[in-house]
Write a structure and sequence with these properties.
It contains 5 helices and 7 strands, in the order αβαβββαβαβαβ. It is α+β, with helices and mostly antiparallel strands and 174 residues long.
């Protein structure tokens, strides 16, 4: 989307119907590529954020959520990087991370669909904005029953079609 394009971002459902989400690609199948064709992955990494978060919260929640996927699903991590001078850098995800937004109800429904599909997932609740360390973060989530979590973010990884179904009703983050 360019700065002059004021059309709404496509929803996850529209991406599935139009093939827009296919630009992210498939991972395990041998890709059929032309010189400029995008790499296609058969899995998807997606973050769903509640649409009422402040900009700093969106960035913070996204960073925390994806950190969980890299540890639980190590195959999503690529090889280490190095520049032309040989300076080493940490490895990163091998595929793009798509960021979506939705209202609280859609996020809650997506959480339920991710659970029913047993997809690797991480959650961020509103309570975590008031904690300052990992121990207190885990205690804050543990203190609330699953159906009463005040979710502000969810990250999932899995087959593209399963993740697309989890994200039903969400739209690409602007």
């Amino acid at each position: 989307m360019t700065a002059t394009d004021h059309s709404p971002a496509p929803t996850a459902d529209q991406q599935v119907r139009t093939g827009h989400a296919d630009a992210v690609g498939t991972d395990h199948a041998a890709p059929v590529r032309t010189e400029h064709a995008p790499v296609r992955f058969d899995t998807k990494i997606a973050v769903l954020l509640r649409d009422d978060l402040a900009p700093w919260q969106r960035l913070n929640v996204t960073a925390f959520l994806v950190s969980g996927l890299g540890t639980a699903v190590p195959e999503v991590i690529g090889e280490p990087y190095a520049d032309a001078d040989g300076t080493a850098y940490l490895p990163m995800f091998r595929q793009p991370v798509l960021v979506f937004e939705a209202d609280k109800e859609t996020l809650t429904a997506a959480h339920g669909r991710a659970l029913s599909r047993a997809l690797p997932r991480s959650v961020f609740t509103s309570d975590l904005f008031a904690t300052g360390n990992d121990r207190d973060n885990r205690a804050a989530v543990r203190a609330v029953p699953r159906d009463h979590l005040d979710l502000v973010g969810l990250a999932v990884h899995g087959p593209r079609n399963a993740v697309d179904r989890v994200l039903k009703g969400a739209r690409m983050h602007p």
